[in-house]
Write a structure and sequence with these properties.
The complex is a heterodimer of chains A (168) and B (442). Chain A has 168 residues and is mostly helical. Chain A has 8 helices and no strands. Chain A folds into 2 domains: 58 residues, no CATH class; 63 residues, no CATH class. In chain B, the strands form 2 sheets. Chain B has an 8-stranded mixed beta sheet with strand order 4-3-7-1-8-9-2-10, sandwiched between helices. Chain B has a two-stranded antiparallel sheet with strand order 5-6. The chains are: A mainly alpha (168), B alpha/beta (442).
């Protein structure tokens, strides 16, 4: 073997080593953390059917009173609902009137403050028919804890007038 | 930058800053025409099907003494069915404007909803309308809110209906160039008040007049929670069918208004608000609340209807009695307009039935021996009248046009012309309307 052949052989070995090293250095390490997988999809993607006015009124009533709405009440509220062109306005008016009824079943503020996780979980189940995800739970908990003036009534009102509540 | 270009840029910036607040949502700086004849128009659909025999031709005497001059007595055989109403005070309304005695509902089925739709869109409908759908052609409210040059607030346009059914759908159309963003506020007062004849109470008061009130600080907290909830939801809700929306400020005003009328009704103030010997019917109640809307909001465009006259299908004498009540209601509407600062002498009131009634009666006889009248499309059921009242310098006073002139589809372009935006309506829409009723102008 002449000198040129040896040089070429060494050169090929050198280049191969470089290529191998460069590939191995680019290999991504996979880290596994001890948390559960979380969906980043927005909630309610499967809720796309708008409640009609009768369904909406019936559900607001049963969610607040824990009982089915009497027929006469449903007829009256449906008439009043149809009689106003700004639907968000009349919905808000109906909700605030029902909320102001002393016979509505509302948790106390003391209960809410002392059982915040359970309160939030139950409120999601009652109005949205689902449990909150970790992010929702954490965020709503933070909002309530940072604002001592928030009452269960205000939370209920927020849920009843939310976008998600209008769909199923 | 040289001195000249610096001055030019400063000038353009200054002009932009000055003009910005006046740029309309329609991306136009000013409306093309801008010349308003008046700043308010009230359109009253004297509806329910009124035949010209009983109205203009006074076949049963002068059943509309507040509108029409003359003291012709009511037919003796039906006089016993007439309730007592206050006599006319002052001149008949026809003295304050132009009366088209032979107006026409020219095309389409002679149904109430078709008649209303044609009058409120300016376009005839050739087929029976699907009452579950909004009209195809834009309504006068949408033309007004999209093209007028003063204000786009929904508080400036109202549709006050005597009934529900299909009528709430007339506050905006399904035309994709217009729609709910330009719709009117709709109110059907009788159902809001919701009078319960069993216990003589206003159910509306019990159900809507005691809302939970949140203070400013509480509202701010609620908004934080709502932002959280809506932020995690993929959908968006905007009214049951993407209906009209008001600003928060305007909503507060409407809420206050509704609460006021409910409270006043519950206190007994609406039991007999006009102090009549005659009983209050739906038309009188509807007009009474429309007058409240006028006094509270001074709308630039308000449409109100009356339809108790439609009892004519079964009871001719009561039909005549209700024509008289509608006539009385119209007089109170005119008096309210003329006594409301901001609207007095700056309002045109247009009055027209939506359809007439058949020449020949049906087989139903009332207790006075008179046969009832339907409206099934004969020529007589297309013969109506139109009255335009307004300021002396704008509307020709004490003018009666007895020849056949004007159609119900002429009312929308006339309103647009009175409020100064007719030329701003795109040609494709103007072509499907009638014409401006210039005969009534000075």
């Amino acid at each position: 073997m002449n000198t040129l052949s040896i040089k070429i052989t060494y050169y090929i070995i050198f280049i191969s080593t470089l290529i191998t090293l460069s590939f191995s250095s680019c290999k991504k390490k996979e880290y596994i953390y001890e948390v559960n997988d979380e969906s980043i999809t927005k909630e309610g993607v499967n809720k796309s059917t708008l409640k009609n006015n009768t369904e909406f009124i019936s559900m607001v009533y049963s969610d607040l009173y824990g009982t089915t709405i009497p027929n006469a009440k449903l007829t009256n509220l449906s008439l009043e609902y149809d009689a106003c062109g700004d639907k968000e306005l009349i919905e808000d008016l109906i909700i605030r009137n029902l909320l102001n009824d002393p016979s509505v079943q509302l948790p106390t503020k003391l209960y809410m403050d002392n059982n915040l996780d359970a309160f939030i979980d139950n409120t999601y189940k009652k109005f949205f028919n689902r449990t909150p995800n970790e992010m929702e739970l954490w965020n709503l908990k933070r909002i309530i804890q940072e604002d001592a003036s928030i009452t269960p009534e205000m939370v209920y009102y927020s849920f009843l007038t939310s976008d998600e509540y209008r769909f199923y | 930058m040289d001195r000249r270009s610096f001055i030019k840029k400063i000038g353009l910036t200054g002009a932009g800053l000055i003009a910005a607040p006046y740029i309309l949502p329609s991306q136009r700086l000013f409306a093309k025409t801008g010349t308003r004849k008046v700043n308010h128009v009230v359109f009253c659909l004297f509806a329910g099907g009124v035949r010209n025999f009983e109205s203009m031709q006074k076949a049963e005497g002068n059943l509309m003494p507040n509108i029409l001059s003359g003291n012709e007595g009511i037919s003796s055989d039906i006089i016993g069915g007439m309730e007592i109403l206050p006599p006319r005070s002052g001149l008949a309304l026809q003295n304050y404007g132009t009366l088209f005695k032979e107006f026409r509902y020219g095309n389409g089925p002679t149904g109430h909803f078709n008649g209303h739709t044609s009058a409120m869109t300016g376009a005839y409908t050739s087929t029976e309308l699907n009452i579950r759908e909004r009209p195809s052609a834009p309504t006068i409210f949408e033309y007004y809110r999209k093209h007028n040059s003063t204000s786009h607030s929904a508080l400036n346009s109202w549709w006050i209906s005597d009934s529900l059914g299909a009528y709430p759908a007339l506050n905006y159309s399904k035309d994709s160039n217009y729609g709910p963003a330009y719709g009117a506020n709709f109110l059907q007062p009788l159902s809001i008040l919701n009078f319960n004849t069993n216990n003589f109470t206003f159910q509306g008061y019990a159900e809507l007049a005691h809302p939970k009130e949140f203070n400013v600080s509480e509202k701010a907290s609620i908004n934080k929670i709502k932002a959280h909830l809506d932020g995690f939801f993929a959908g968006k809700y905007n009214g049951i069918d993407g209906g009209i929306t008001n600003t928060d400020f305007d909503r507060d005003r409407i809420n206050t208004f509704i609460n006021t009328i409910l409270t006043q009704a519950n206190a007994g103030a609406y039991n007999n608000p006009y102090g009549l010997t005659a009983s209050m019917n739906g038309d009188l109640y509807n007009m009474f609340i429309a007058e409240k809307v006028i006094q509270e909001f001074k709308p630039e465009l308000l449409v109100v209807n009356m339809q108790s006259i439609d009892v004519g299908h079964t009871n001719f004498t009561e039909y005549c009695n209700n024509i008289r009540k509608a006539d009385y209601a119209l007089a109170t509407l005119w008096n309210t307009i003329q006594s409301t600062p901001g609207m007095a002498n700056d309002t045109v009131l247009i009055v027209a039935p939506e359809i007439g009634r058949n020449l020949n009666p049906n087989s139903l006889m009332d207790s006075f021996g008179r046969y009832a009248l339907d409206h099934t499309g004969d020529q007589t059921s297309r013969e109506i009248f139109c009255l335009m009242l307004g300021p002396t310098g704008i509307i020709r006073q004490n003018q009666t046009i007895s020849s056949v002139a004007g159609e119900s589809v002429d009312i929308v372009p006339t309103i647009a012309d009175l409020l100064g935006f007719y030329d701003d309506i795109p040609l494709q829409y103007r072509q499907q309307m009638g014409r401006v009723l210039t005969e009534a102008y000075v």
